[in-house]
Amino acid sequence: MNLHALKIFCEVARRGGVTRAAEALHISQPAVTAQLRTLERELGLTLIAPKGRGILLTEAGELVAEKAERLFSLERELERGLLDYKEGRAGRLRLVSTFLPAHYLLPQALARFKTLYPQVKASLQTLNSRKAAESLLRYEADAAVIGGAGSWEADGLTGEPLLDDEWWFIVPEHHRLAGKRTGLAEMLEEDFVMREAGSSGREMLLAVGRMYGTKAPKAGLEVNGPGEAIRTVASGYGAHLVSALEAAGPVSRGEVSRVYVEEELPVNPIALYTREGEDRPPAVEHFIGVLREVLTGRLDRE
């Protein structure tokens, strides 16, 4: 079926005459008439009949006009949807992330993003780094935010650095070292609230001691989970080595205090990963922009 001729017929039916349809379409009356005759020949039906200075739709014409209006309404809806998608106002955003960015970095960025782009369907799933990368490679996610990104590689992915998460020593608010600078050896004389064996915080604490040749820190108390460790310190006991992302909130609220050591501590790189060689969907590009704005604001505050 000649859709161009069908569209012209719909305009004639909608406006009740060839002249008004020609004016609306910015084409000549003979051109409109020719297209109508072409459509009628193709369908083998008479669609319009003269009625004074206007036209009258035949029964077949009414049927064709009704169905065609639905067809072109769907076309307009499709065009609007595609435009919204191209401009990033619609679509989906499926994120996977490791624990730290998922809990302390992405919620603020996602809240801001959804405020700006409410029609985009967004989701966030927390996985370990390997599973996050695999999910991205299997097309189950559109982007991955992975901590410790410098310690592993995955073919088919490309990474962009977001920030270097620092390690901070924290102590109770009224501790003698609160807010002060000291040497690592003195810091490690404290009783430590230690994470469980195998945790990144515990391994980093032990690694820092080995790196600078100090004695091993003393575990005054062992807990599972970063929240429990920070709350224990906030309650008045021990020292703890913790991610800056986790500690920034409690430090800013005065629940715990940071201790600045003279020695340089390693950092935990956090990076954004997408599939290599692919154009990122517009909604994903918008989210990355929002995420970087949030990070810039965070770094400025720090």
Question: What does it look like?
Answer:
Helix 1 (3-15) packs across helix 2 (18-25), helix 2 (18-25) packs across helix 3 and helix 6 packs across helix 12. The longest helix is centred in the N-terminal third of the chain and has 28 residues, at 59-86. The protein has three domains: 3-86, Winged helix-like DNA-binding domain superfamily/Winged helix DNA-binding domain (Arc Repressor Mutant, subunit A, Orthogonal Bundle); 94-155 and 276-301, 3-Layer(aba) Sandwich (D-Maltodextrin-Binding Protein, domain 2), CATH 3.40.190.10; 164-267, 3-Layer(aba) Sandwich (D-Maltodextrin-Binding Protein, domain 2). The strands form three sheets. Strands 3, 4, 5, 6, 7, 10, 11 and 12 form an eight-stranded mixed beta sheet that branches. It has helices at 3-15, 18-25, 29-43, 59-86, 99-104, 106-116, 129-137, 184-187, 200-211, 226-234, 244-252, 282-301, and strands at residues 48-51, 54-57, 92-97, 121-126, 143-147, 157-172, 181-182, 191-195, 218-223, 240-243, 256-261, 267-275. It has twelve helices and twelve strands. By secondary structure, it is an alpha/beta fold. The protein is rod-shaped. The termini are far apart. Helix 9 (200-211) links the parallel strand 8 (191-195) and strand 9 (218-223). Keywords: DNA-binding, Transcription, Transcription regulation. InterPro entries: LysR_HTH_N, LysR_subst-bd, WH-like_DNA-bd_sf, WH_DNA-bd_sf.
